[in-house]
Amino acid sequence: MPMMTGGCQCGRVRYRAEVSHMEAYLCHCRMCQRATGGVSIAFKSLKKSTITWETQPDWYVSSPIAKRPFCSTCGTPLGFAYDRSNYMDLTVGSFDDPSGFFPTENFGVESKHPAWEEASHLPNLRADEYEPLIRRWSETTSKGPR
């Protein structure tokens, strides 16, 4: 199985995961909305045994039946895990290269926000071409955002 890597924004928490296919899903439940601050979160479900934490994450007990890995240094949400399951979810955005993943289903649709479902008609802005952002980075450091 192909090995993929990922981790948090600051780099303190890192993982390796065996990924056999690129199917993922979007969760719209209120707990995930609150845990991430977003209207949904993209998850990749994997067997726990296929994930190796190179640096252990912190864990938040988010309910009586589940917990969520995260980095307490930078705050990056890294996943979701039921207590009594052989599987857990990693956030798609925490993979070093999330570009190959694609959604195959929506979960928690009772909390879905329809206004955010279809955004392809909105203007597209590139961060690497947005002058105010480029200026702020260049005034502070020689490196851009990662």
TrEMBL record:
Pfam family, one: GFA
Domain CENP-V/GFA: from-to ranges: 4-131
InterPro entries the record matches: CENP-V/GFA (IPR006913), Mss4-like_sf (IPR011057)
Record's keyword terms, sorted: Lyase, Metal-binding, Zinc
Family named by the database record: Belongs to the Gfa family.
PANTHER family reported for this sequence: CENP-V_GFA DOMAIN-CONTAINING PROTEIN-RELATED (PTHR33337:SF40), GFA DOMAIN-CONTAINING PROTEIN (PTHR33337)
UniProt-recorded name of the protein: GFA family protein
Organism: Erythrobacter rubeus
